[in-house]
Write a structure and sequence with these properties.
About 35% of the residues lie in helices and about 25% in strands. It is α+β, with helices and mostly antiparallel strands. It has a 7-stranded mixed sheet with strand order 17-18-16-15-21-22-23. A 6-stranded mixed sheet has the order 3-2-1-5-14-13, with helices on both faces. Strands 4-7 form a two-stranded antiparallel sheet. β1 and β2 form a beta hairpin. The longest helix is centred in the last third of the chain and has 27 residues, at about 370-395. It starts with a strand and ends in a 9-residue tail after the last helix.
Length: about 500
Amino acid sequence: MKERYVAAIDQGTASSRCLVFDRSGRIVGVAQKEHRHIFPRPGWVEHDPDEIWRNVEVVVSRSLAEAGLEPSDLVAVGIANQRETTIVWDRHTGRPVHHAINWQDTRTDHMVSALADGFGHDRFREQTGLPLTTYFSGPKLRWLLDNLDGLQARADAGELLFGTMDTWLIWRLTGQHLTDVTNASRTLLMNLRTLDWDDELLAAFGVPRHMLPEIRPSAEVYGEASGLLAGVPVAAALGDQQAALFGQACFSPGEAKCTYGTGSFLLLNTGERPVSSTQGLLTTVCCRVEDEPPTYALEGSIAVTGALVQWFRDNLTLIASAPEIETLARTVEDNGGCYFVSAFSGLFAPYWRSDARGVIAGLTSYITKGHLARAVLEATAWQTREVLEAMIGDAGGSLSALRVDGGMTANNLLMQFLADVLDVSVVRPIVAETVSLGAAYAAGLAVGFWPDREALRANWHIAAQWRPNMDAGARERGYRKWRKAVTRAMDWLDEDDD
């Protein structure tokens, strides 16, 4: 019988990729293309949706060519996407009305403060599992309606469609205006228990329901693609971090993963019940496969981790490529007392402080570029510890191992330091492209390419493992200093700042 394959479109913050997987979960074709980041003002981050779609077309074509395949060799395609990034486009022409507003964008800070005034930032947490913050899509959509001439009237007249990146891609592929429960749960507009748009939330944000996509399961055949993938079922969509949890085969409550990319995201599967957080975490939909009950997760989001290494490379020019930071950091034995808090877009979990900005603390004349490089890497590990402590506080129990993936896991110094400061084993699977793998797994399940989750779990194998090897006293001293540095980053913005 002819071999068949599943493709995954992974539309991320920095690039778009397409990966093709065989039945064992092995990558047989891959292509990637970066897109522009647009920074109109400090704190504003945008992308061009049309450029992203063109790039998706390119990487789909290239990945199939690399594998020597035709679209007819695919049983399905799944989508994983950067979450919260917000797009509005014309229902009839398909033209975006504005650049996509990226999840890192902080332009809605004053709006969020006004919505929280008198209620607090947990105003909508009971319905959504989320705090009021610039991170999510609802405020970004409201900003577009408020600030583009005539947009509110066009929205009221039914001329406009809203979507996150998954919706944009599904619409371009199939003509269907859909989203899945994982992406919808990141908008501040969906009720976490009904899995539908919430009238109270829509009224609070002034969003017409008819511009919102239909909410569907994460794994389900949405329709057939046209164009380059003509005839291939589009059968899954998950926010990238939920896709990574699925790709890591964390199907049971208590299993956790952390993806280290532009930002870093720690998710803990909590099963079929949403766990409300009192520790500054997000309660989010983990996945829903066809008509099965949804599963939920606790999530801790760190805004800037891999992006800090990129900043260190591009803005300080102390390294020529991202991998060189490990070599530079190994020129010193420790951070020399230097700590780097990467609050470029405020602090996310567990603080949710949009008034914070980045700081380097503990500078002395002793500090070299090697110490700075080490502080940049260590910032990722210390932030992960803060999130993990909050997660254990909310969900109870303990974690024996953390499954990791993403580009930063190639940095062995960082992974060992992570195991040291968490005091748990850190495990990387053989297929580290777990975001794409999760989207492929979900699509394959929807069309019966894989029979069940146990078949997916059997594909998961360890490639590398790091065990803690740090003196407990040194760990706690470092953590104490880190938390002092974090307090220096807070309360930086003033009322008259733009």
